[in-house]
Design goal:
The chain is an alpha/beta fold. The protein has twelve helices and 13 strands. Helix 3 runs parallel beside helix 4 and helix 11 crosses helix 12.
Length: 337
Amino acid sequence: MIQGHGDDTHDYPGIRSNFSSNIHPHADLTGLEAHLCGKMDLIHRYPEPEPRSLGKVIARKHGISSDNVLVTNGATDAIYLIAQTAAKHHYKYFSDGPLPTFSEYGDASRMFGLARKDYSGKTEEAGKTVLWLCNPNNPTGDAYSKAALADFVPKHDLVVIDQSYEDYTRWPMMTPQEAAASQNIIQLHSLTKTYAIPGLRLGYVVAPHHIIAKLRENVRPWAVNALAIEAGTWLLEHQVSVVNDLHAYLSETQHLRALLNQIPGVTAYETQTNFFLVEMAAHTAADLKDYLARKHHILIRDASNFRGLSPRHFRVSTQTPDENMLLVEAIREYLHQ
């Protein structure tokens, strides 16, 4: 596990605008908060050893069998569970797709003894391979077409498609029904990100039933706490939407990109979601991050620890128009000091 995934407000007291987290800002979860306040008696009892009740709610939402769903303690918990299960079933290699991408795929795979190989699938080495794909991809915001995914799937024994940011894009996503009907696809979903509840840690896996059965062999009992289960159930049953106007939110993302690209020495790259990479020509992201946090109480994601990126890369996630303008002006100030 690398240090510095973003949202490290604990290291920077007084942050007012957090561009470092990819989760939708300023989500109105007052209804959920009120509901959980009335459910505090749950902390006095053990939760379900595996949250099958929430799994059934998820399955109904997607029109699939509950045998195709496994609820986890966030999508990252699922990543490590998948890597552990793959190693137990004699997988030797992993590929984490085109770089840069989320580091936990490689970290989890290496933890359980898998070795990295090229994502193209072209190799003379024998042994089963698991391919990890983030769609939309973190940290770039790129998205794979269904045609590209269809090309990847036959080349690998197991394909994990992490759709944690699926609710922050208009790009066509693979459906849970398609993943459940496949032979070798595991699809990751993040309720943490969909509903802006990172402190609760909640995600789920959709896959063919024979893969779910193998994953269940390694599930730790009580991995998902009772309040997280209650929150997930309430949010799904009440059809809560954190991003009320996705079109406007993504349009603001493109506006922020355009403003940053007007600053000499700054390049903000294309994206299909609410976050994107930025590269500076002659300054480090670490220095900019420290300056913004301490002088303007703005937090960005230093992206230099992503494999394949440089010390000049950082990532931002769109906030409100006013906050976005503050970021742009603060970066201008930094570059002209």
